From TrEMBL:
Domain of life: Bacteria
Keywords of this entry: ATP-binding, Hydrolase, Nucleotide-binding
NCBIfam families: urea_amlyse_rel
Domain Carboxyltransferase: 2-280
Organism: Sporomusa malonica
Protein name stated in the entry: Biotin-dependent carboxylase uncharacterized domain-containing protein
InterPro entries: CT_A_B, Cyclophilin-like_dom_sf, PxpC
Any one Gene Ontology molecular-function term assigned to this protein's record: hydrolase activity
Amino acid sequence: MPIAGAMDRYAYRIANILAGNQETAAVIEMTDSGAAFKFDQEQFVAVCGADMQGKLNGKLISNWSSFFVPKQGELRFDAAISGCRTYLAIRGGIEVPPVLGSRSTYTRAKIGGYEGRALRQGDVLYVGQDSAAPTGPRRLQSQYMPQYTPEVNLRVLLGPQDNMFTGNAIQTFFNSAYTIAGQADRAGYPLKGPKILPLGKEADIVSDAVGLGAIQIASNGRPFIVTADHHTTRGFAKIGYVIRVDLSKLAQAKPGDKIRFTAVAEQDAIKALQYEQQTYNMIAAHSK
């Protein structure tokens, strides 16, 4: 069973902070284009991530902000004009039954979330009780808002099978720009660009565990980045792993966008993770 859950962990966490929720409260993730939501009662909500030109009762809302939706209010989202995924958090979270300790939806196995599937027109959602601290309407400070661009740089830890590739192949991997293929989805991002050739005839291995952010080199020599709904085992060599912090940047990239890789050390990845947690703490402190 994969982790599933939010593709963009950063936008998800910030949305819950702005909504005054516990950090694991269930939210709604929208990809590429949004939906319309009618509220039977007044609710306090937050919207973060891609700019889907959200409107409350016909008036534009600010992204990366929290606000009240009045009783019988309508919140509507259109196609994303910046980024790829938008997160809607409601104070208290979305009330869905936990599965294996999670409220995430894994649609490939049809489990979790709302009936194990994507939402449809006419679905009725209920508000849960996963609120944390009282908070009021606010907009996130600009220095904490990511800027989504058509070229993304991802930091990478080499291994565990980087020894299956020549030095020239690894150099090609880090010096090249790759394009996200149209088949990119929640399971992974296939990339188009220069081939990464292994020392042997192919980069196949005995199937082993695959973690979030793994960069597999498929039999066609092209990189494939594993994301939230990934297979838990695969038989392709993993040249490296995208560090956890940078997966949020990848989640907001779309087919046609460019990807470049930069090698970092383990201590750099740890520092990035620590800085991200400090950011959450600072934003949460300002919400009180």
